[in-house]
Amino acid sequence: MNGDSGEKPRKRKSLFSFLRNFTLPGNIKLIGLRELVKRIRRANLYGTIRERFVRFYLRRTAHVRSKNLTIAWQPFHFILVKVIVVSGFSYLLFLQFPLLSGWIGQGLAFFRLSEIYNFKYPDKSFFDSIAKWIILCVIGYYGLYFCFYQLQALFSSLAVSPADNKLYYIRNFILKKDLHIFTLSEIDYVILRQNLFFRLFGIGTIVLKNKAGETVVIRSMKYASHVIKKIADARGVCRQGSTIRGKVRKRKASESLGEIDRDDDE
User: Fold this and answer.
1) What pTM was computed for the model?
2) Would you state the pLDDT for residue 141?
3) What is the Cα–Cα distance from 68 to 164, expressed in whole angstroms?
4) Which strands form 157-161's sheet, in the order they lie side by side?
């Protein structure tokens, strides 16, 4: 019988004891930090290609050789979310064609155009087709406008080079490309606009104004706060350098004046 077998019941191991005694097999190799960064960059294929393209374009166009570039752009997933939301609203708007069809039919009946011009009053399918075409024309017009600006945002970038004291803004209009170059010391002030949703995802709108009064608005950029920090640090270094150069010039001028006074005394 099972009761007389004398076998002791097995003790169940707790989860804590299992985790405490758990060891990795010897054939599993842990990767280093550099390899982990490389694999993350490979997974982020869009960002990696985008960054390399911006560096190549600035090197060929503006001869930017600095490797310490802070590059930002509008995130691809943010543009994709905007396209999905606008497409959903457009579809919901298209589904409201019976309402517009009823308005058109009521307007035609109110003004009695069929009696004035002596034609047969059309049926409901005729008004439905007119309402559909009107809504499609409105959606198509504003849809092309929206898609153009989303493609422009997709291929536009912002780069900050503290070593060169420059800020590069690349605006891509698909068929043409504009490169705006700002000197960081000439920027009058910088504004970072973020709401709660944008702060959660590290997105922000950057407003730049130079001393000439020109204002440039760069909307929904990724790593916007990091870009603002780089601009502030670079401007601080530039101001410190200009102050030091001013002190050196004053010192040299005072030394030269002292030498002239000595020559006059002699």
Assistant:
1) 0.63
2) 93
3) 10
4) 70-73, 157-161, 166-172, 177-183
